[in-house]
Amino acid sequence: MFTHIMIGSNDLERSKRFYDATFAALGGEPGETDARGRLIYSHKGGRLMITTPIDGKPATAANGGTIGILADSPEHVRAWHDAGVETGGRSIESPPTLRPNGQFVAYLRDPDGNKLTARSLPAQKA
């Protein structure tokens, strides 16, 4: 259904440090910058794009919005969370934790306030 998610940033260099580190923790590649200066991250078929707002007004985080990122394992979730905190993100809601549904989950706010979650799914029974 979705081709990509686009979020705004007030400081693309700061965003690049944060997202390069968090995606590297998941085994992803650093972001690329397109001809318009937007950051582009592709990982496991999904695409996250980060830009300064076209209207020239400050970027703001979506109230009630969350971007979910799939991780391969609880270790990747922890590494993602640690990398995010180390590069200007803020841990929110709870420390990385196992949920009753079997998902291992962590939450962060990026340096611009966007709410993110990384989660690994329960192992499938053979």
From TrEMBL:
Residues 1-121 form the VOC domain. InterPro entries: Glyas_Bleomycin-R_OHBP_Dase (IPR029068), Glyas_Fos-R_dOase_dom (IPR004360), VOC_core (IPR037523). Pfam families: Glyoxalase (PF00903). Residues 107-126 are annotated as: Disordered. SUPFAM superfamilies: Glyoxalase/Bleomycin resistance protein/Dihydroxybiphenyl dioxygenase. PROSITE patterns: VOC. Gene3D superfamilies: 2,3-Dihydroxybiphenyl 1,2-Dioxygenase, domain 1 (3.10.180.10). Transmembrane segments: none annotated. This is VOC family protein. The lineage of its organism: Bacteria, Pseudomonadati, Pseudomonadota, Alphaproteobacteria, Hyphomicrobiales.
